[in-house]
Amino acid sequence: MKKIFTKLTAAALSCILSTGSLCTSYVFAETRNETTVTIHYDLSGEDVKVEDNQYGGPQYIYDFSGVPGTSWNISDVGLERKGYTFSGWTFDGIRAYTPGSVIQFPDEDATLTPVWSKNSDTVKYNVHFEAICDIGVIDKDGRLPDYKLKAGELIEIPIDCFYHPEDTYTQIGWIYDGTAYLGQSKIIMPSSDVELTPNWHKYHKFIYSTGNVDRIIGVLSQELERIASLETDLAEAGRFSRIGFRNTGWLCSADGQVYPPESPYMMPDEDVVFTAVWEPITYTLVFRPELLDKSTHIRINGQTDTTVICPDVNIKKPGYRFGGWDYKGTIYQPGDEFLIYGEIAGLGIPLEGVWIKEDTPVLTDPTYGDANCDGEIRLSDAVLIMQCIGNPDVYGIDGSAPTAITKQGMRNADCYNPGDGLTNLDALAVQKLCINLITELPVNELTE
């Protein structure tokens, strides 16, 4: 059998409703530099006095002030009046608050007056819960029976709720005389019978959409249900993922406004679609002629779906010519336009330099000592000679290192007894020239 009755806890009600007379937070008003309002206790009635404490001593009730919208506790001190029982406090003669209740400061000064029931009254009035919905009467199955109260006593709104037979509505509290009340709130029993009816709220579709855009990773939409007239928080910016773009807000189909991610929104009595608002990401393109040498890197900023001009290389490599910039297998030449398609958020866009080994050049007369063929004789030439001798697979002719010695460089490096091949004495000869121990190269063993 389908359930027609449930019970919502006070905590659950506070989660799904953002409005109401009760609030569970306690905020102490900072009166300086803020607008404050004052709540006054009216103790002017005949024979009204504040009850003594448990030891027979006097107690006092003071007016209190606070910032509108913040919350405070009503005094928990009771009142006494001959021939009456104190029920609580009221602002409007309808809704009541028991001593110690938490209230929310109104927008202007207000007065709390005491609620009394007369001890001599013998007449009691009926409290009835009418279980109806849009398609008819719901069988209460014996739940929420009628009961009677004297005028001035307090009706506690039940937290019990009914299930809608078609599950198209949900009940949040009860309605009395056209006003909705949450469970556990109080109303004053009048001098007449009272009927309460369920406060139904309709479910509507609540849809998030990426919109008609490309480069979406994952789902394109998400459909939820929300209850009309209740407040909800919109989704975070990362609900959807789009390459090259970030979500900066949600465009609402109901009112045409753009709401920031995670902002509050009051659900209307209709289906609503929130479409992501996309903004292009600004990337830093890093052109890297040498992967490990960051001093050679060239950085250019640009947004998704714009183009940048690929720069010229800023270094030279002996024995190699620059072949362009590699991005995911496509080679771009200096001066080409590069379209920024985008990457997943948080990633940069690197373009790697491509170096092509030059064809074997025609050997020229040697410039003795210039092992790296840069036109100068320096200690770096001696270092290359020793690297070539010590690790020929990397630094020898056709070695794997970009700075490997070339055939012309090998010819230039043979500067000690030219013709006997590369030895440590060639490196030593270069070092001697650099520190002016000798004045020229080559060096011949017979004439040294």
Give an overview of the whole structure.
Mean pLDDT is 87; it is low at 1-33. The longest helix is centred in the C-terminal third of the chain and has 12 residues, at 379-390. Helix 2 packs antiparallel against helix 5 (424-434). The protein is mainly beta and 448 residues long. The protein is elongated, with a radius of gyration of 43 Å. The protein has 5 helices and 35 strands. The chain is 9% helix and 36% strand. It has helices at 10-16, 379-390, 392-395, 407-413, 424-434, and strands spanning 5-7, 37-41, 49-50, 64-66, 71-73, 79-80, 84-90, 95-97, 102-104, 110-118, 125-129, 132-133, 136-137, 147-149, 154-156, 160-162, 169-176, 179-181, 186-188, 194-209, 216-217, 221-227, 231-233, 241-242, 245-252, 258-259, 264-266, 272-280, 282-288, 298-303, 307-309, 320-327, 330-332, 337-339, 349-357.
Class from helix and strand fractions: mainly beta
Output the radius of gyration: 43 Å
Number of DSSP strand runs: 35
Assembly of the depicted chains: single chain
Tertiary shape: elongated
Helix content: under 10%
The average pLDDT score comes to 87
Report a brief summary of the structure:
With 448 residues, the chain is mostly beta strands. Helices cover 9% and strands 36% of the residues.
